[in-house]
Amino acid sequence: MPKKFDDCVKGIKKQGKNDDSAYAICVAQYKKDHDGKSPFSKKEDILESDLPQKVKRIALLVFEAEQAGKKVKVLESEVTGRAL
Q: The whole model's pTM is what?
């Protein structure tokens, strides 16, 4: 994983968010900051990561959709004001 992504996850978790929320927020923020590019450059990055299982399944679905040329919309949370 890119260091910027890992730092984001650590920072969000320090704010009291659970693993699922931290990873979801940071994936969305990373994509927003990198013109839609995922922090995962290959499927193995996701499979070998320490992502929570639920987040890993979602990350795989998004990765496969992007590999098929489909756009995946990033939503913004009304609660946090951050991309989700």
A: 0.64
